[in-house]
Amino acid sequence: MNYLLETLLVSCIILVLLFFFLRGRALKKSFKYESNSSTNVDSPQSENEFLKNQLLKLQEAFKNEQQLISFQRTEFLKKEELLDDQLKDLEEKLSIEIDNRKKVLSQKKSSEVRLGHIAETLAPFLDQFDFDPENCNFLGKPIDYISFSDDEITFIEIKSGKSQLNTKQRHIRDLVKNKTVAWKEIRIQ
Questions:
Q1: What is the 3 state secondary structure string of the chain?
Q2: Which of 26, 72, 124, 154 lies most in the core, judged by the most C-beta atoms within 10 Å?
């Protein structure tokens, strides 16, 4: 912003100096022409007065430009302050919205977990459950059920929605698939 104002100011000064230079050359040519055509003694004084008047006009114009630049700078600073305030308001609103979305997401996940627990409890009584509920024992963690039928023992994990097996459940699944299941009898006396 300051660069723009400085460039504008320098350009104005260059234009003024160029005007004086060109005007001075024109006056010199005019003065030489007048002094050759007539012998007027007052010509140098009138030229000096003219130059003084022009200098005063330029000084006045320069002051006006400085005032205009100062006014514009003040306006730019006010606009910058207003934009800063608007930015702070938007950042605060964004922060509030992020917090609200986090709460909603947390509530959604919590309700999904509760729904999953309900589904685990009711699973033996649903049509998709292929085992006899009387032969199933609920464990809860890390595996939901174990079914003891006449010809096999089955580990059962109930999942709802898009939920996946956790690391411990995947490890148990892999052990069962690799047939690394053992029997151990412990007697206490």
A1: CHHHHHHHHHHHHHHHHHHHHHHHHHHHHHHHHHHHHCCCCCHHHHHHHHHHHHHHHHHHHHHHHHHHHHHHHHHHHHHHHHHHHHHHHHHHHHHHHHHHHHHHHHHHHHHHHHHHHHHHHHHHHCCCCCCCHHHEEECCCCCCEEEECCCCEEEECCCCCCCCCCHHHHHHHHHHHCCCCCCCCCCCC
A2: 124
Q: Are residues 10 and 70 in the same domain?
A: yes
Same domain, 13 and 76: yes
Predicted confidence at residue 41, as pLDDT, reads 43
Neighbours of 123 (CB within 10 A): 20
- Domain housing 66: 2-21+46-119
In a shared domain, residues 78 and 147 = no
Q: Which tokens sit at 116?
A: 């999953």
Distance, CA of 84 to CA of 77 (rounded, Å): 10
Q: What is the pTM of this model?
A: 0.46
**Tokens linked to 171:** 């490890």
- Does 142 fall in a domain? yes
* pLDDT band at 9; cut points 50, 70, 90: confident
Q: How far apart are CA 117 and CA 120, in angstroms?
A: 5
Say if 33 falls within a structural domain.
no
CA neighbor of 56 nearest in space, from 64, 128, 150: 64
